[in-house]
Fold each of these.
Amino acid sequence: MSFPWARQYTPSNGLTRFLDEKLPLPRLVYNAVGAGYPVPRNLSYFWNFGVLAGFCLVLQIVTGVVLAMHYAANGTVAFDSVEHIMRDVNWGWMLRYAHANGASFFFIVIYIHIFRGFFYASYKPPREMIWLIGVVIFLLMMATAFMGYVLPWGQMSFWGAKVITGLFGAIPVVGEGLQVWLLGGYAPDNAALNRFFSLHYLLPFVIAGCVILHIWALHIPGSSNPTGVEVKQESDTLPFHPYYTAKDGFGLGVFLLAYFLFVFFMPNALGHPDNYIPANPLSTPALIVPEWYFYPFYAILRAFTFDFILPAKLWGVLAMFAAILVWFFLPWLDRGPVRSGHYRPLFRKFFWFGLIPCMAALFYLGGAHAEEPYIMLSQIATAYYFLHFLVILPIVSSIERPDPLPYSITEAVLGSDKKAVLGENAEPVAV
Amino acid sequence: MATTTATPDEHAVVTDGVATEGVRRRDFIEIAAVSAAGIGGLVMVYPLISQMAPSADVLAESTTELDVGALEVGQSIKAIFRKQPVFVRRLTAPEIEQANATDVGELRDPQTLAERTLADHPDLLVVMGVCTHLGCVPLGAVEGENKGDYGGYFCPCHGSHYDTAARIRKGPAPLNLQVPDYSVNGTTLVIGEA
């Protein structure tokens, strides 16, 4: 949907008139990210991260396609071909570091994007579908990142592949057969490496397709905003271009500074040194952990150390997947009528002093050694994580008395709806 | 972008020190920002294109050394130089005579045999085994192969005939078989370095 006051696209010359008639791509762009998309005027920098995530996806696809021109997915030469990229290929070192750090920054961006969704309850009606597609994109990203990490065929690649496919071995009855089928063997080898490469190349394009659905779904109700109050009138909005292209452009510049700081000055800071040791099926590294962005879920996996009706291993796997799948139910678990955390005092307390410390702890614990006191702390954090989503959130959102909301976005910004500086289509109003 | 277009300064309307028409300070910021982003983007394109050029390990294979001490008159060797065939032949006296008897002015790519060999080794002919038409490997380097109508090389793909000095005489190829840079050090032939 577009608001009735949205600017209309008018082709200005012969070429654009021709295109508008035959294939109205310029119109699509104008209405999606141009002046034809009215956006709430009060978006904060937290609303930059969707565009940044899109940028990261393009960055990963471009650098990835280029790296695939030099990489060989074969157990005997994969590690050497990565070193060949680092040493021989023109600019290969930069392209590989850009891709590896690009994955980390993609996850930083996406975690902040999800955090924004949690705090401002962006998942609430009418935006449930945007949220659901977003969770699907996150799952696809996790699969893509995991398979990409296997490709250099170093020690962490190999043992990561073994451990993650081992998760499926926990499933009763069919588990072991499933694991062998996934790997195409009894341990990771050529068959696994080849299919991981194939899927690692495919999934980003599936993600790109889901991103189109995500944006399509977004444009039906339009963007949310920090007050959570829906757009009521033209003075509540600004055209996406030039206002938010400029704001997103500035955010992109800040993002690129941080990103290239890593690419050029500490390219291996977010990786594991063990992955520069070629894969050795006979020796496991002392500390086997996934990439940092999987730490919270890895901590949940390792928190289950005791059998309770089901084997501990299965509990860990179920809990790890449930930790993400629970996000699918958020639109219905959060029962409050108000969206934004700014107007929900109780929700806000549990968010900042419950969920955030819990996530921070899981992030830390996922990278720690599997020993006490880390295991016990993981168990407490895991318990709280599920308690938050399944018990605290539904109860808090039911009993909470929200703060009064502003009448409109304009009132929230200007203090009074009456002083509204109306949009360009409106008649001047005497105040 | 701003809807305001640049006009001379004297038309600028200034209210409270801020130009509302004509060239504004904001125009400068917009042009500077978009230019910086554009140049930055173009700079990033360079590595993406450069990565497809030969890598360091390919460039490291840029010379080939051959021992030509045992190469007898009338014999040829086929070697590999930069992943492509190269023909090395010790020409016989009749072949040299035949090459020198040709009227250079009639050739499609006029060159004398002397211009295609080293002064110290006028009987050693080193040419790339790559037809100048579309890159097939001509026949004639191996005993018993078709040497074409002029006793040198014959390309079976589209019928180019090269003479004893490997110059194009008949067929679609535009140029003589290319003579790579090479030098002879004792009995060692170094292809790839003049």
Amino acid sequence: MHKSVFRRTLVLVTVLALVVTSFGFVAAQDETPLTADPNLPRGGTVQVSHRHASAWVRNFNPMAPDPINEVHGLMYEPLLVWNEVTGEGLPWLASSLEYSDDLLTLTVTLRQGIKWSDGEEFNADDVLFTINLMKEYPELDRAALWDFIDSIERIDDYTLQFNLSRVYTLADTLIGEVEPVPEHIWSEIDDPITFTNDDPVATGPFAIVCRFEDQVYELCANENYWIEGLPYVERLQYVARPGNEQTTLAIVSGEIDWAGHFIPDIDSTVVAVNEDVGYYFWPGGGTVSLYFQTEKAPFSDVAFRQAVSQAIDYEGVVNIGMYGYTVPADPAGLGVRFADWQSEAALATAEEMGLGTYNPERAMQTLDEAGYVDADGDGWRDMPDGSPIAFNIQAVSGWTDWVASVQVISQNLQDVGLNAQVATPEFGDWLNNLQTGTYDISIGWGSSGRYPWNHFRDTMFSELIGADGRANAVTWSRWTSDEADELIRAFVATNDEAEQREIIGQLAEILVENVVIVPLFPGPTWYEYNTSTFTGFPTEDNYYAQGSPWDRDSNSRLLVALQIHPHEDLTGE
Amino acid sequence: MRFLLRRLGFYLIALLVAVTINFLIPRMMAGDPVQIMFARFQGRLSPESMESLYQTFGFVRGPLHEQYAAYMSSLLQGNLGISVAFFPVPVAQVIGSALAWTLRLVGLATIISFTGGTLLGVIAAWRRGGFVDTIVLPITGILNSFPYFWLAMLALYIFALHLGWFPLGQAADTDLIQDWSDPVYVMSVIQHMLLPAITIVVTSVGGWLLGMRNNMIGVLAEDYITLAQAKGLPDTRVMLTYAARNAILPSLTGFAMSLGFVLGGALLTEIVFSYPGMGFTLLNAVNTRDYPLMQGIFLIITVAVLVANLIADMAYVMLDPRAR
């Protein structure tokens, strides 16, 4: 409806050309990553909702494990903004991050003219201070930077040189994620770990906490923001609502402008009632998959896992379980984001093995050939030695989309003669079962990171299975191999894209031919917007950044917060 | 006095046992707070962060006896520790505001429900077959057995969404600045409290009513009631000071218990009406295996139940000399 207005806006907002070299990230010097259009209307309060809570707890420490979510990006900005949708790193507080030829030093150049919200100037001392703080307090080193940083040299006010202890080609993206804190404030703090940072001083566009109460907080535009003329809107308001019913009701009634909530059957429950509401559930999340306890029979048998993959009605899972909000996954689980990393060889193997395609006859044939037949005549298939097979597929209690998906799958498996039941433990139990290997088959999320490497590393890297036997990240299938380990290590030791693609292709083939997991669908990201007062939101046709206002690992919502603006001027209202 | 001291000693031991159980229960649940913290990001947090998380949350790991010693010693210093889910915010701060809202809403609703239900129970028993006995009693009985969530949602849809008599949710108008000296804000708080409070009262009053009515009927059959009436005492005096005073004793224990449990919050009320409070805070603590926060909430509930019982004991003694 407001599409034409929106299009025009976007043409005016110049997103500067960005050069991604194989040696790091470089932006055109002295140009800001976005520029403001002085003709656009300004002001207004955007109502945002992304988290269920009954009361807010004041915690704006960007280094805390889970503070008020807006500290990331909207308050404390990263050196590099990662746009998951385009797969590009946008130099932000830094203007470039460049490797030396031997990949052992990384030179970070900062933008000039950036100010903290209290008017002090931002420079290399702040970045140096922040990263050194992580060395002094390993509790704050969330990305384990000091595993590969050896030392940091301050070249001048705007240049730092990182000397790396080993070649680690994720260093630029990981250092790029650092959100610097102001040295002139934080150096006075006794304990940065237990600091709740009630009134933050930051560089971001919404760095000012102008109101914080039990059930509502407001973030106000930073008048010292370094991109002149941005942000357009005056404030963001967050009202606490603990339940799904209340958030859905508020979205339907138009109280919320920008949201990130799962809403069942949104077309008829919301969009049909309020035509100002739009949504786009971009399927760019990690790939939701079935995991097997491969240390137990029959799940230890590749043929059995292959048969499971052949028996599943993927379209049914997506349409019934997920309300059609996503699409069936590819057999390697690379997902929509990394579709161009797909390996032809892995796809061919998958096709030959019949993976990822609904074919119950073939599944029954696979089971028959592997000796899983009904020996005792009870209607269910048994082990080749005649002992009965009965197992559970677990999903998290109350996660209705996953539970419905698993119900479809258990029906599919029953249709081919497997006695599969659904179990729905509570979240903590579900997780503990996966990590300690006390389950049979389980649905679970997939890892999402900067590169497809994260998916394979987090799924089958042996180092992620702890000495105590706990399967960390998503190594829940407990399937590892020396070959995969080596490839995983090799990826981060090279910066050559052709070589990296080759490695990803081989990893995909290993994952596919061993049926380590059964990828079901790429995870949708929940995002709704209301165009009655504001415009400039990403839409399905123009998805310029990830739309969800809840964001942890990509800060691309910063690009959205900077570009939304009212239809008409609301300054001072 | 000796009675009181004996009771105090008993409560002290009960407190000690309860505090230990409060420590053990969260740790008996499967799952680890650090792993759950990591998992809450659903694959969006890199496994590299595990190491730093384990270092941050060293205080909820370590051998059980060390954790217990640390817990007891900080309790003695009046320190509830630091929350895991809201790290590094202290537990006392997380509980603080929720507690105040719960006390106001659920506390008030419980008192109204108990007082109203008991009075109605007295009347129902006094005028058997009267209006209260034949009409009010069955209606409140039915409401009492309705699923609360369903009834509250229905009330929200009818009275807030369609009729617009009440606000849709929150503890106060979010456009108003939280300022207790501002009468407009206070009015808004009262207005937002009405519908949730009414749903709590309506669904709980039946229990008090029925209990009191049955006690009253038992007492009314006693000889001293007949005697009092024979002496020509006024009906209200016989009803209240002779019958009700004795009949209320069992209800009082129940009331003390429920006053204590007020502090557990009213989870469903909070969810339906987006009301801040202890119920959702506790649910959150359980879901995230936030041991310190769970311990803190359990401790407050335990202390409240014990104190309420102590007060009930004393009230018992005052009302019934035989108990001395």
